[in-house]
Amino acid sequence: MLSKKIKQLSKHYFIQVQAIRRHLHQYPELSFNEFETSKYIQQQLLKANIEFKTGYVKTGIVAIIKGKNPTKKTILLRADMDALPITEKNNVPYKSCNQGVMHACGHDVHSACALGAAFILNDLKAEWEGTVKIMFQPGEEVLPGGAKLMIEAGVLKNPKVDKAIALHVFPSMEVGKVGFKTGMYMASTDELYLTVNGKGGHAAMPNEYVNPLIIASEILVEINNIFMTKSASGFDKSTAGFQIQRNEIPTVVAFGNIEGKGATNVIPDKVELKGTFRTMNEEWRNKVHVQLQKIVKKYSLKYGIKSVLRIEKGYPFLVNDEVFTNQCIDNAQSFLGVKNVEQLPLRMTAEDFAFISQKVPSCFFRLGTGNVKKNIISGVHTPTFNVDEKALQIGMGLLAQFCTSG
Questions:
Q1: Tens digits of residue pLDDT in 145-154
Q2: pLDDT at residue number 247
Q3: Domain extents for the chain?
């Protein structure tokens, strides 16, 4: 049985893939600067005699493995390569050597699992049908997203991709388990940059200044009242000047940074804010863009000042194809046991694999990497994030299993 051989090869390649993961972890690189990472992955593919193409968005790679009847179907595996601007605090032999840069989101694990799957699929290519393209992409962590740029560079063509798969580490799930969510899964994400221009002056002379901090506060409160405190299926905010039916669409509009550069007795000329907007409906997304601009304009007119809201449109929502994801769930249950496959809730986090999920039927799933007994419990994007490396064997095995089934 093919799944038995995949399990055997997952075990066989574990030490090699573990070493790959540790090397990647030790030498992380920031988004769109993954030059040494790309070279290292290319070396691993060359050693395994796996065909690949480079030149995608400078550091991107696409490996190609052909099974029997290679034109029957083409499945894409996605692995991201970039790290984060975080200083690692773990005391491990493979601690980051690049000061201020760390694989704190598990992209080292993703790339290692994809390489492990490539080794397995290459060894068994006489026993499965179709073609597998393995995409090692730059820049998942920053806009516009490496997946988007690689799509524009033709990653979904020649041969045309029929289905796509990606995994992501999940530290809150114990190693040995995986999680899936069919249908809508992750939110779109837009970056918000608001500049409120007032008139600065001495704080003791309120008649001579227009305080941009107060104006920014009023804008924030109104945005919060509209988008963060209402859960009814429909509402009318006449003060905001609009009527929209919101059918329980998950929505987050939140500002996490405000900078005024004044002092105890100095009112600044302007205040700058940074925030995020996330949702799961494109029509609603566009309406919120318009409404946010209206709110900012409202307070500009009220105080006779000029404010500017720049909305940088980011990743779309991520949707898992119902049929394909259910097939993957069935495969995972067979491969790992029913008790080790969990159903996941919606998430308001974002992921640039969403660009791919909008183009072809896709399955994006979570790989359990936590281990409470070993105190491997830190979340992603933290300086103490780590994984139980047993997850590597599960990750590479499942990716290979999904590619060879159906």
A1: 999 999 999 9
A2: 54
A3: 2-187+317-404, 188-313
- Which residues, given as ranges, of the chain have pLDDT below 50? 230-246
Helices 35-47, 107-123: axis angle to 10 degrees equals 20
- From 1.10.760.10, 3.40.630.10, 3.40.50.170, 3.10.129.10, which CATH number describes the 2-187+317-404 domain? 3.40.630.10
Can you give the pLDDT at residue 406? 62
> Can you say whether the dihedral through the CA atoms of 33, 36, 40, 43 is positive or negative?
positive
| Measured CA distances, 81 to 66, 85, 148, 337 (Å) | 24, 14, 15, 30
Q: What is the CA radius of gyration of the chain?
A: 24
Closest CA to 204 of 269, 263, 272: 263
**242-251: long-range contacts, CB 8 A cutoff, minimum separation 24:** 242/291, 242/294, 244/284, 244/287, 244/291, 246/284, 249/279, 249/280, 249/281, 249/284, 250/187, 250/278, 250/279, 250/280, 250/346, 250/348, 251/227, 251/278, 251/279, 251/284, 251/288
Give me the architecture of the 188-313 domain, per CATH.
2-Layer Sandwich (3.30)
For 58-90, the DSSP string reads TTEEEEEEE-BSTTS-EEEEEEE--BBS-----
370's enclosing H/E stretch is strand 362-370
SS3 283: helix
Q: What 3-state DSSP class applies to 95?
A: coil
